[in-house]
Automatic annotation (TrEMBL):
<comment type="function">
    <text>Catalyzes the last two sequential reactions in the de novo biosynthetic pathway for UDP-N-acetylglucosamine (UDP-GlcNAc). The C-terminal domain catalyzes the transfer of acetyl group from acetyl coenzyme A to glucosamine-1-phosphate (GlcN-1-P) to produce N-acetylglucosamine-1-phosphate (GlcNAc-1-P), which is converted into UDP-GlcNAc by the transfer of uridine 5-monophosphate (from uridine 5-triphosphate), a reaction catalyzed by the N-terminal domain.</text>
</comment>
<dbReference type="InterPro" id="IPR025877">
    <property type="entry name" value="MobA-like_NTP_Trfase"/>
</dbReference>
<keyword id="KW-0808">Transferase</keyword>
<comment type="similarity">
    <text>In the N-terminal section; belongs to the N-acetylglucosamine-1-phosphate uridyltransferase family.</text>
</comment>
<keyword id="KW-0548">Nucleotidyltransferase</keyword>
<dbReference type="InterPro" id="IPR050065">
    <property type="entry name" value="GlmU-like"/>
</dbReference>
<protein>
    <recommendedName>
        <fullName>MobA-like NTP transferase domain-containing protein</fullName>
    </recommendedName>
</protein>
<comment type="similarity">
    <text>In the C-terminal section; belongs to the transferase hexapeptide repeat family.</text>
</comment>
<dbReference type="InterPro" id="IPR029044">
    <property type="entry name" value="Nucleotide-diphossugar_trans"/>
</dbReference>
<dbReference type="GO" id="GO:0019134">
    <property type="term" value="F:glucosamine-1-phosphate N-acetyltransferase activity"/>
</dbReference>
<dbReference type="Pfam" id="PF12804">
    <property type="entry name" value="NTP_transf_3"/>
</dbReference>
<keyword id="KW-0012">Acyltransferase</keyword>
<dbReference type="GO" id="GO:0003977">
    <property type="term" value="F:UDP-N-acetylglucosamine diphosphorylase activity"/>
</dbReference>
<feature type="domain" description="MobA-like NTP transferase">
    <location>
        <begin position="7"/>
        <end position="134"/>
    </location>
</feature>
Length: 246
C-alpha cells in the first residue's frame, strides 16, 4: 500500500514550551523518545523510506533513533516547515511517488491512519490529502475551510481568520500526503512573506488551489492521535492515556 512513499519526519525544532533543555522530540514517552514513536508508526505502515529532518540537538536525535532504518537531513538554521522540506530536495526532487509529512512530536499517530490517508490520496488522485480533526476549542490552530463539494478550499491561520472562519472547529494538524513532483514544483514558489521571515508548508495548499489542483482532508475521530505534544502537561496526559490502553 505504501511502497512508493517517502516519509519526512520534521524534528528540528527546540520546543521552548516544554521548559526543558532537551529538544522536544527527545522527551520520553513510555520509555521511548517522541520521535521514535512516530518513526516506528511510519515504518509499520510500510513506507519505503523514512527521512528525519534534524536541527536542534541533531546528534542526540540521531542517536535516539539508532537501530532504526532512517536517514537524516540537517536543517540549520530553522526557517519554517517549508524550509525544512526544502532541505530534503536532494533526496526527493526526482522521486515520483507520494511524500508523507509527519511531525516528531505526534507520537500517537497510528499506522492504520497513515495507510488510510495514503489510500484516500491515491484513490482520489489528489495533489494533497491531509488529516484533520474536530475540536471544541480550536484556539490558535489553523482552520480547514471546505467548498460545497467537500474539498479543501484553504487553510486559514487563526490570526488571519474572519469571525465566521474562527467558528469552524475542523483544524489542521499539518499531516500531509503530497503528490511529490507537484510539491517539489510548489516549493520553488514559496516566499517568506510573514513576520517571522519563514517558509510555511501550508502555503503550498494555496499554490495548489490557485492551479485548480484537488486537495482533500480526512477527519480523524480521536484528535489526540494527530495533535502534537507541546507542554509537559500534555506529555503527562499522553502518558496517562497510553497507560489506560488508548
Amino acid at each position: 500500500m505504501t511502497r512508493d512513499c517517502i516519509c519526512l519526519i520534521l524534528a528540528a525544532g527546540q520546543g521552548t514550551r516544554m521548559k526543558s533543555g532537551l529538544a522536544k522530540v527527545l522527551h520520553p514517552l513510555c520509555g521511548k523518545p517522541l520521535v521514535e514513536h512516530v518513526a516506528r508508526s511510519a515504518q509499520t505502515a510500510g513506507v519505503a523510506r523514512t527521512v528525519v529532518i534534524v536541527g536542534h540537538q541533531a546528534e542526540q536525535v540521531k542517536e535516539s533513533l539508532k537501530g532504526l532504518e532512517v536517514e537524516f537531513v540537517l536543517q540549520s538554521p530553522q526557517k519554517g516547515t517549508g524550509h525544512a522540506v526544502m532541505q530534503a530536495l536532494p533526496i526527493i526532487e526526482k522521486f515520483a511517488g507520494e511524500l508523507l509529512v509527519l511531525y516528531g512530536d505526534v507520537p500517537l499517530i497510528k499506522p492504520a491512519t497513515i495507510v488510510s490517508l495514503l489510500k484516500k490520496h491515491r484513490e482520489e488522485r489528489n495533489a494533497c490529502t491531509m488529516l484533520s480533526t474536530i475540536i471544541d476549542q480550536p484556539g490558535g490552530y489553523g482552520r480547514i475551510i471546505r467548498d460545497q463539494d467537500g474539498s479543501v478550499s484553504k487553510i486559514v491561520e487563526a490570526k488571519d481568520a474572519t469571525p465566521a472562519e474562527l467558528s469552524v472547529k475542523e483544524i489542521n494538524p499539518a499531516i500531509y500526503s503530497f503528490e511529490n513532483q507537484k510539491l517539489v514544483e510548489a516549493l520553488s514558489q514559496l516566499k517568506p512573506n510573514n513576520k517571522q521571515g519563514e517558509y510555511y508548508l501550508t502555503d503550498v495548499i494555496g499554490i495548489f488551489r490557485a492551479k485548480g489542483m484537488k486537495i482533500a482532508a480526512q477527519i480523524v475521530a480521536d484528535s489526540r492521535e494527530v495533535l502534537g505534544i507541546n507542554t509537559p502537561e500534555e506529555l503527562a496526559e499522553c502518558e496517562e492515556y497510553i497507560s489506560k490502553g488508548r
